[in-house]
Amino acid sequence: xxxxxxxxxxxxxxxxxxxxxxxxxxxxxxxxxxxxxxxxxxxxxxxxxxxxxxxxxxxxxxxxxxxxxxxxxxxxxxxxxxxxxxxxxxxxxxxxxxxxxxxxxxxxxxxxxxxxxxxxxxxxxxxxxxxxxxxxxxxxxxxxxxxxxxxxxxxxxxxxxxxxxxxxxxxxxxxxxxxxxxxxxxxxxxxxxxxxxxxxxxxxxxxxxxxxxxxxxxxxxxxxxxxxxxxxxxxxxxxxxxxxxxxxxxxxxxxxxxxxxxxxxxxxxxxxxxxxxxxxxxxxxxxxxxxxxxxxxxxxxxxxxxxxxxxxxxxxxxxxxxxxxxxxxxxxxxxxxxxxxxxxxxxxxxxxxxxxxxxxxxxxxxxxxxxxxxxxxxxxxxxxxxxxxxxxxxxxxxxxxxxxxxxxxxxxxxxxxxxxxxxxxxxxxxxxxxxxxxxxxxxxxxxxxxxxxxxxxxxxxxxxxxxxxxxxxxxxxxxxxxxxxxxxxxxxxxxxxxxxxx
Length: 502
Ligand code: ATP
Ligand code: MG
Prior knowledge:
Bound molecules: adenosine-5'-triphosphate, magnesium ion
Oligomer: single chain
Number of helices: 15
Strand content: 15-25%
Number of strands: 17
């Protein structure tokens, strides 16, 4: 007998001697109920992420498989459950219906209508919410820009339709407004917009929904709402549901922009669930798999190849920091997962520079390639001059004499800062931004009082839209600044200056 045979016979003997009676006769029942989490004993064959059925028809989601019990997230009506209620596994995983009817609606984490309008009706198939990210051969790096309509972003932090661009900073610094403005700008594009509200106040979500209606863009937007009044379980599930809905449209060859507002609250919801499930807390009491939670969500953004229909999913995750601490656990994780970051700045915001984007820190890792040569030419100058200006401005707070050269740099910086200010709900097209940048960079605004720059901007764009249709089509098509194009731009600016009385 060789050693393998000896081992085998020992195992067989051991099995023979083990009394298995009773092992499978444990009743499957709830042994502990916590905040939307149930511990179930005896559900031996339960699988991770499986849906289970409680005795009174309520469903649960298996989240934790321990040796002696199973941790289940309760999906609704927690109040109706009691210790001792029986539980059955179903062999199903969490799924939602997928259909076009989501467009223009507000739905919950289960894909159900919650906007007070007609409920969904019709035949549907259920689709799993944890769908795999497209693998590398299914993706194709075609680079089509996603215009936001926000001057500071389209000029200096341009974004592609597949990118994951993080919007990050403290409370009340304009994060959600950047998303909303970008959505409004899609009115004239074919991009579908999905807003996933995680732990937001219902009143704020309602306001967003109203604004989308007011600007006639609602029909191409979907809101998935798991508000702050919903249990942590729903806040945890909402982004995966939103993402699955986005993938449905992407797989039909459409371009989708999805905003997760915000993933800090998502992480807090998951931490709450994990602590109830007695998972060991790690850094900042978050469970060790928190990185995977967000990476598996954001990896699902991407551009599909020709065979799969050219659809794309662009993701705008939002993270809220505490006093600008980007070295905290969740901000560092998500910064490392994303392809670029828009950092906001509280000082800029309070001093009236809105959107309060810190152009020195913010990046889009593809910025050099996502722009036309024309925009790139202006944008690099703008970025350098603004960064210099902000450094100088900080330095000058301490009061020191400045030479004429520095004074000129400061003046130019102030002009650019004014030029990049933008009211909310007022996105503008990239071809319009080019005109403004040309005027700013070539000194056409230098003699002006700073307060009148926004008026000058309005006049310029009005002139462009009403009297220079040819120039608009040239700007839309142009990749470089040809002498003929430059002549036209100059003509527009000079005409406007003489017309302008400010
Ligand atoms: P929170 O942390 O509460 O989610 P936030 O960072 O998402 O806040 P917003 O809600 O977008 O910030 O904006 C905060 C306030 O600033 C709002 O009242 C909004 O209307 C205002 N605001 C944001 N951007 C602009 C802008 N460009 N022009 C004028 N007001 C703005
Ligand atoms: Mg917000």
